[in-house]
Design goal:
Bound molecules: NADP nicotinamide-adenine-dinucleotide phosphate
Number of strands: 13
Number of helices: 15
CATH superfamily of the largest domain: NAD(P)-binding Rossmann-like Domain
CATH topology of the largest domain: Rossmann fold
Largest sheet: 7 strands, parallel
CATH class of the largest domain: Alpha Beta
CATH architecture of the largest domain: 3-Layer(aba) Sandwich
Distance between the termini: 35 Å
Order of helices and strands: EHEHHEHEHEHEEHEEEHEHEHEHHHHH
Structural class: alpha/beta
Length: about 375
């Protein structure tokens, strides 16, 4: 077995690498990395894997031969071809994962993924391609819990952001490839790490920090929020990659109903971890179109900031929060994957590892 892992210099991909490492499979893995050469690629990879606690021999034994230097949007399939021949499993995490209007989203997430998929299928005896998607590709207007289904999601411009549309479009395009062994794993919102908190990545945690600091956001206190930690996400993805047979070709890698947390419970857990009183008695739910009214509070509660940027960020994330989706994960659990720990169980680690970092600094991670 030879695994190709893409996106390992990112948040979810590195978590998947850690899950491979815990199974002793790191050295049967090739890594597609953007870098000038294999040496620079290996350095980038080691740096990121170290953030996930992979250290010592496992890190040192990684070699340049395991690094495929490539950018999905400019694949030299002739040069890359022979390096792909041994691949049996692909865990495709690489994507431009941003809620911004970055004009490269489509070329990365759709065209780049398709080019890579075609090249691997042409050169290798591919047994499984796990396509990491986003559960939010279902788009707005559905009833929660959202089912694990190909029917969820419209391939049109009804999406809140181009990113979720691109992720749905590429799933549909991959499904149409003849004899392509596709398994789609639609991940929910990934926040922190159940042991390392936000040390590997602060992605999205700043939204909670801002909501609690402002004592206002688009969530109702009883809204259930479907969030998973990166380490659990990596483990679940690797389970889907390695299990000899699977009952379905599409799964939610999500907290689902049992492991989602109510906003009010997150408030309590966050307050306890930060040694402060919960904001619940003062909390106000704000409609998306009224977030603008919070601007005068920004400087007082969030420090010196770029008001427009914060308003834009809160509006984007507030729109997703307002959907109030939980993603059903019965198919995943039926494959033997243990349920995710709820965010309330590990939020203290996220708080502890965020204390010294300004919210605006954490936010930069999500605006590429
Ligand atoms: N984070 C979440 O909450 C979440 C939720 C649901 C689904 N997902 C999915 O999980 C996957 C990873 O997301 P993430 O949060 O880990 O994002 P991330 O931290 O931004 O990592 C993205 C990874 O993709 C690589 N990449 C991007 N464009 C590439 C290209 N053209 N060629 C080669 N590599 C490229 C990046 O490489 P560089 O390091 O060179 O930039 C990086 O390794 C995505 O498919 C995303 O849709 C994430």
């Amino acid at each position: 077995m030879t695994i190709l892992l893409t996106g390992a210099t990112g948040f979810v991909g590195a978590a998947a690498a850690a899950a491979l490492a815990s199974r002793g499979l790191l050295h049967q893995t090739l890594f597609l990395v953007r870098a000038e050469d294999a040496s620079a690629g290996l350095n980038r990879l080691r740096e990121q894997l170290a953030r996930f606690g992979i250290v010592g021999q496992q890190l040192e034994k990684l070699s340049q031969e395991q690094v495929l230097c490539a950018d999905m949007t400019a694949l030299d399939t002739v040069a890359l071809g022979p390096r792909l021949a041994s691949i049996t499993q692909v865990l495709h995490c690489a994507a431009l994962a941003t809620f911004s209007n970055n004009p490269k989203i489509w070329v990365n997430n759709v065209d780049g993924t398709l080019a890579l998929a075609r090249a691997v299928q042409q050169h290798a005896k591919l047994q499984r391609w796990v396509q990491v998607g986003t559960a939010m590709c279902c788009g707005p207007g559905l009833t929660s819990p959202v089912r694990e289904s190909w029917d969820a999601g419209l391939d049109d411009d009804s999406h809140l952001v181009p990113y979720t549309h691109s992720k749905l479009a590429v799933e549909i395009a991959l499904k149409a490839l003849p004899d392509f062994p596709l398994v789609v794993a639609r991940a929910s919102i990934v926040v922190g790490h159940s042991v390392l908190g936000c040390a590997p990545s602060p992605s999205i945690f700043w939204v909670f920090r801002m909501a609690f600091a402002l004592e206002r956001f688009t969530c109702a206190p009883d809204d259930c929020i479907d969030i998973i930690p990166a380490d659990w996400c990596g483990e679940a993805l690797v389970s889907l990659l390695l299990k000899p047979s699977l009952a379905h070709n599409l799964y939610h890698v999500s907290a689902g109903v049992p492991s989602s947390s109510r906003f009010v419970d997150l408030d309590n857990a966050y307050a306890k971890a930060s040694n402060r009183a919960p904001v619940a008695p003062r909390y106000q739910q704000v409609a998306l179109e009224d977030l603008r009214s919070l601007v005068p509070l920004f400087e007082e509660r969030l420090g010196r900031i770029n008001r427009l940027l914060i308003l834009r960020a809160l509006t984007l994330y507030g729109a997703f929060a307002e959907l109030n989706y939980v993603f059903d994960n019965q198919r995943l659990l039926a494959e033997g994957v243990a349920p995710s720990p709820p965010l309330t169980d590990y939020i203290a680690e996220c708080v502890r590892t965020s204390e010294a970092i300004p919210m605006t600094e954490q936010m930069k991670h999500d605006f590429k």
